[in-house]
């Protein structure tokens, strides 16, 4: 059977509602699967990288299994790409891109800055993204006409703030080393020009950018499942997400997220040296 790759304009209101409902149901299922394991004693942790440390826990696997079950039931014709279970083909031209726990190192350390990532892609564009932090109870979504957040203390509209200069910007990244030695040197050129640099928030940093609390997120070594949901959320909030050369970063690599075009251009220039 041939597949059709839809564009945003191809999606009718009913399909958009179906996608949003499935995304929230998948995130709810992930919450239920993960929370019994968070800060629990005896958490089982395996290492996926024999040459380093790339942890995966029983919570990662349980959450992706739960999300896949929801999506298979609600959206059976869509493809699924997940960090732990790989790719399941589909025929609709839409792909769900899942990271059951983005920030497993933080999860196993007990910090509440990890998150569940859910995105819907047409293959060359993210049309919807969702970032969920189950322990805090916050959820951020963007795309398909939505740019909102909700949590135990209320919610509202997502909007990146209007910071235009590096001197006024707050920059975030997950790892101080940022990638290769050259990547770290490029990051340092940006960090030396901004007002404040903070580390360690994984996907939560992208949510903070969309909510208007920070201005830049710069990372390297990402996969599609790390960045697609943040792309959907940040673009809906008025921000920009590209690679370090200003091109698409849909499939991972080195990512630059910025609140405004002016700030994005300044960060690109600093990264390039």
What fraction, in percent, of the residue positions are helical?
Answer: 25-40%
Uncertain runs are none
Relevant CATH superfamily of the largest domain: Fructose-1,6-Bisphosphatase, subunit A, domain 1
Q: What is the CATH architecture annotation of the largest domain?
A: 2-Layer Sandwich
> What structural category characterises the helix and strand content?
alpha+beta
Q: Mean pLDDT, rounded to whole units?
A: 94
C-alpha end-to-end distance: 49 Å
Which percent range describes the beta-strand content? 25-35%
Q: Report the count of strand segments.
A: 15
**Structural domain count:** 2
* Elements, N to C (H/E): HEEHEEEHEEEEEEHEHEHEEH
CATH fold group of the largest domain:
Fructose-1,6-Bisphosphatase, Chain A, domain 1
The major beta sheet can be summarized as: 8 strands, mixed
CATH class of the largest domain: Alpha Beta
Q: Number of DSSP helices?
A: 7
Strand order in the sheet with the most strands: 4-3-5-6-7-8-9-10
Overall outline: globular
* Rg computed from alpha carbons, rounded to a whole number of angstroms: 18 Å
């Amino acid at each position: 059977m041939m597949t059709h790759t839809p564009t945003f304009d191809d999606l009718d209101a009913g399909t958009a509602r179906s996608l949003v409902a499935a995304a929230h149901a998948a995130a709810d299922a992930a919450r239920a699967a993960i929370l019994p394991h968070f800060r629990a004693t005896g958490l089982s942790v395996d290492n996926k990288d024999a040459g380093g440390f790339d942890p995966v826990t029983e919570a990662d696997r349980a959450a992706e299994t739960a999300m896949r079950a929801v999506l298979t039931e609600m959206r059976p014709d869509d493809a699924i790409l997940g960090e732990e279970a790989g790719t399941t083909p589909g025929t609709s031209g839409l792909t769900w891109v899942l990271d059951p726990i983005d920030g497993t190192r933080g999860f196993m350390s007990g910090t509440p800055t990890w998150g569940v990532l859910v995105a819907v892609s047409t293959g060359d564009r993210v049309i919807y993204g969702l970032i969920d932090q189950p322990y805090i109870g916050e959820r951020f979504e963007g795309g398909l006409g939505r740019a909102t957040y909700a949590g135990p203390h209320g919610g509202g509209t997502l909007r990146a703030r209007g910071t235009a200069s590096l001197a006024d910007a707050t920059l975030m990244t997950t790892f101080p080393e940022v990638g290769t030695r050259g990547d770290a040197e490029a990051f340092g050129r940006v960090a030396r020009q901004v007002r404040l640099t903070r580390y360690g928030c994984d996907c939560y940093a992208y949510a903070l950018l969309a909510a208007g609390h920070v201005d830049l997120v710069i990372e390297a070594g990402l996969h599609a499942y790390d960045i697609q949901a943040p792309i959907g959320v940040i673009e809906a909030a008025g921000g920009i997400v590209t690679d370090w050369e200003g091109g698409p970063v849909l499939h991972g690599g080195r990512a630059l997220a910025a609140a405004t075009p002016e700030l994005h251009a300044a960060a690109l220039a600093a990264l390039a040296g």
